[in-house]
Amino acid sequence: MGGGHGHGDGHHHAVVGETPLTKVPDWRIYKVEDVPDLMRMQRTLAQKGLKDPWARNHVWRYIETDYHFWGKPPSTNFYANFLKRIAIGLWPWGIGATVITITCERLYEKLFLSDDGDEHGHGHKRPFRIFP
Length: 132
Hints:
The chain has helices spanning 36-47, 78-112; strands spanning 11-16, 19-25, 113-115, 125-127. It is an alpha+beta fold. The protein starts with 10 loop residues before the first strand and ends in a 5-residue tail after the last strand. This is NADH dehydrogenase [ubiquinone] 1 beta subcomplex subunit 3. InterPro entries: NDUFB3.
C-alpha cells in the first residue's frame, strides 16, 4: 500500500505506514443523473441558458453510501436538518454552561464585592480588598 494511491478497487486510501485509515470514494461514482433534485435544478438552469458544471460535487449529499457522513440521505433542506441535529444535541451543554456561569458570577459577587457603606441605598459596590 502506497501513500494514498489507488489500488484498483476504485478508491483512494489515506495511509499511515501500511494501514489504511479511510477510503476516499472515486469521484466517478457520483452522477448527477442519479439525483432527481439535481436533475430538476439542471433542467431549470438549462431553460435559462445556464449550466452548473459543479453539480456533481453535491451528489454525495443525496446518495446513501458507505462514505456518507450523515448515515442517510438528507432531505432537500440539508442545512436545516444539520442545524436541528446540532441544536438537539448541544442544548443540554448550553443549559449546563449557563448554570455554571450564573453560579460563578454570584459566588464572585459574594466573595469579592461588598457594600461601600453608603447609607443612601444606592447599592454601590467596591472591589474586595485583602489589605485595607
